Amino acid sequence: MSAPHITPQKKRPRSTEIFSRAEQVLVGGVNSPVRAFRSVGGGALIMERGQGAYVYDADGNELIDFVCSWGAMLLGHAHPAVTAAISEQAKKGTSFGVTTELELELATLIRDAIPFLEKIRFVSSGTEATMSALRLARGFTKRDLLLKFEGCYHGHADSFLSQAGSGLATLGIAECPGVPDALAKLTLNAPYNDLAAVEKIFANHGSNIAAVIVEPIAANMGVVAPAAGFLQGLREITRKHGALLIVDEVITGFRLHNGAAQQLLGIEADLTTMGKIIGGGLPAAAYGGRAEIMNRVAPLGPVYQAGTLAGNPLAMSAGIATLQELKKPGLYERVNVLAGKLATGLKQALSDTKSPAQLNSYGSLATIFFTEKPVRNYSEAKSSNSKRYARYFREMLDRGIFLAPSQFEAAFVSAAHSESDINRTLEAAREVIASICSNDD
Length: 441
Ligand code: KE4
Description:
By secondary structure, the chain is of the alpha/beta class. Helix content is about 40%, strand content about 15%. The chain folds into 2 domains: about 10-65 and about 330-440, Alpha-Beta Complex (Aspartate Aminotransferase, domain 1), CATH 3.90.1150; about 80-325, Type I PLP-dependent aspartate aminotransferase-like (Major domain) (Aspartate Aminotransferase, domain 2).
């Protein structure tokens, strides 16, 4: 994807210099493609530190952070309870490769919040969680096919990379080289929110579909909410055909309330994946579900999955401290009220300027699409004006507001954001939207 030519007003000499050295040794200067800011042009940031709702780049700019490490930092950066838990644990050692009580503690916190997760296995990334859940589903059903949705992203394991969202959408990679055809053929895609397409696929392949995997609120094509009945329809169709339903809550787990999005949406998956928030900013993720299914995983069953740092004591400590904070009364109400204020204010700014744009939001997730049509799936998301999004991103960054450096991601509101942060963001957005929507690009 060619980066749009955007000339940022603000120069960032230290970020530029450090990033150019990073490019000499790190592929593209990054350890995850979206951090290269290629789809928004203007060069990537080097971040130095974070505190609460703010991050500080290498040039000392204070930015209101709506990336939040792609949703992981729901409590904000350097939360005292989390940093204290990590430093306390670090003094006792960082990894033993043997079970610690911390793993039991975090698993119990998760299961108390989400009782249908009878058994849980920790891994170190969302990719490992979804990859393992798929292997388990294939092992449990003795079937091979996977059905996913265009524009959803479930990490970078081979089976999930066709028509995927997030970084692949950002870079315009529809089919990823390196995935053997024989494996790629086992992944089927349907448009998000299109139950008729799912019915058709099951009519043709139902007896060989091991699982359907879905983001309950899509956030990797930008934010797209499930249509009424869509998720319930997936639940019925998978049950009817003996396929497992995997709900990927790596983003939504503990995002919308103290538990899984499924509990708000009235569905219960066979397997659920989680990550980001449950690790409190350290590498921890998990998959879980009914004991009948999970007990097929080694050492109880033959489905193999393992990991040197799985259940890592530091990550568990950060996750425990995070989930304990998230249980505090009023926290989610405050986040959701602030997020609602942001969404309402952005919608107002777009309608005041008569800009052809959609503001898709759900709880503390939001994305602006510069298109006059509603965005309900990936092809509609891709039809939006991503060059205009790039200008929006750049202009907001120059005003101290750090949004996702890609159209196909979400903005995240955290518990650290304040009313004045939201007001400042809306003030900047009104100015930027008015200016970029008055030019043709
Ligand atoms: P990780 O392997 O990146 O921890 O998790 C993969 C994953 C799985 N499922 C969902 C719904 C996800 O959103 C993700 C990862 N999210 C992206 C951002 N949308 C991570 C950011 C990146 O790739 O750098």
